[in-house]
Amino acid sequence: MATPATGDAIAHVHNDCGSRERLWLPRDHSSTATTARHPFCIECGTVKNLTMPHAKPLGYYLDGLANLKESLEHSAGHEKLVQVHSHLIAQRLRTRREFEDPYGTPGNVQLATYVSTVLAIRPDLDEELILRMLPDRRRRRRPASSQKSNEQFAAAHPRN
Q1: pLDDT, tens only, 75-84
Q2: Each residue of 137-153: pLDDT tens digit?
Q3: Is the backbone of residue 61 left (phi > 0), alpha (psi -120 to 50) or beta?
Q4: In degrees, to the nearest 5, what angle opens at C-alpha 50 toward C-alphas 107 and 112?
């Protein structure tokens, strides 16, 4: 499932240590006095990263790329993301070490790498747009006018 950080090691599923063997490490390196007990893999020794946001597998970012491509196809303000661009971006993401093993990788490093990779191919896009197309960030609250129209539709067409 997950591959270790070293390219020549055999891929394995990380096995967490027991709760008594966990290591006291800083939870967040940017703030002081934030320690937590971090599990580590008993097979390879990789310490699990507990910082927020959590690291995601490569498929999460490839889904975001597909969402971005679909959004740009319907957008009047930007050119479409052609197949060559999406292929180049996906190929570059696959070669990055940040996406090999989400167990020990900080999520903010993955996000920064994803954005910089997309911007390297399409510098005309906005960072906010790129991040907004990621799967868990696509959910937006509906405006009140949209909710009212849905309520009016539901009232006019009751379910039996």
Answers
A1: 888 889 999 9
A2: 765 544 555 555 566 65
A3: alpha
A4: 15
